[in-house]
Amino acid sequence: MKVFEKAPAKINLSLDVLYKREDGFHEVEMVMTMVDLADRIEMQELPRDTIIISSQAGYIPLDEKNLAFQAARLIKERYEVKQGVYIHLDKKIPVAAGLAGGSSDAAATLRGLNRLWKLGIGTSELQRLGAELGSDVPFCVTGGTAVARGRGEVLEPIESPPQCWVVLAKPPINVSTAEVYGKLRAAEIKRHPSTKQVIEAIRYKRFDDLCGELGNVLEEVTLDLYPEVRQLKEVMTRLGAEGVLMSGSGPTVFGLVSKESKVARVYNGLRGFCKDVYAVRLLTQ
Ligand code: ATP
């Protein structure tokens, strides 16, 4: 038996940090949605009790550090599954990019193994399992568009944003999420995005308002550490993207573009600037 799952990339339309909690995590408020750039995960049952991961991407761990491995191990342990699984990750989402590629792979593995082994686990339980693997995993279990609070695991689904093109560009640098959060001084954040205004713009499908309200407090840290990300934002804006923001802790920058006629200009202009550029649609429901 074999199953397949798509694991789409997420972007943050807003990312706010309210304060640092006593447990060391940051209390966040984020609006997240998914784009049509996805890894493809193949899961094949193995008779013996083992988890094997493979991938064409040479630069991700294939052992227990891989989030898909951790998802498979968790579900096997929790539901006492004796069979093993071979998991192939066809990676399309750039790694360590701020697009939650690993988290989405983990979520897709939970969904896929639930089907493969006919475990009948409900969505909220899958999300609870996901929260044990990482803060973005519960959102990736369902996808769609949601406001995430807590450390990212408290989810409120909302409507889809107005459909548009999303041009993504990842400069060739690796950004550590832990380092960015470590350098953030929550009490000294200069400008907080308005989550409420972002939600309103989405609810009333006001594309221009949404572009104007995009905001990510982690930009303060990453743009200072990596001036090329700031430059990338400027280039994308100059090329005509209507709303431009860094996703997650970066370094990927995305630009929202309303008209198909403008997408090629933004895409081609960025290709002269960095290698990893994608023009995709939002995954609206
Ligand atoms: P986040 O914003 O959630 O930190 P990200 O999009 O910045 O995620 P990922 O692509 O998830 O970053 O990769 C972060 C790290 O996780 C990488 O350095 C990689 O070694 C490790 N990793 C573990 N499993 C995976 C996976 N299935 N795909 C990609 N990276 C993985």
Automatic annotation (TrEMBL):
Catalytic activity: 4-CDP-2-C-methyl-D-erythritol + ATP = 4-CDP-2-C-methyl-D-erythritol 2-phosphate + ADP + H(+)
Pathway of action: Isoprenoid biosynthesis; isopentenyl diphosphate biosynthesis via DXP pathway; isopentenyl diphosphate from 1-deoxy-D-xylulose 5-phosphate: step 3/6
Organism superkingdom: Bacteria
Domain GHMP kinase N-terminal: 66-144
N-terminal signal peptide: none
Residues that bind ATP: P94, V95, A96, A97, G98, L99, A100, G101, G102, S103, S104
Catalytic center residues: K10, D136
Domain GHMP kinase C-terminal: 202-275
Protein name according to UniProt: 4-diphosphocytidyl-2-C-methyl-D-erythritol kinase
Organism the protein comes from: Paenibacillus filicis
GN (gene name): ispE
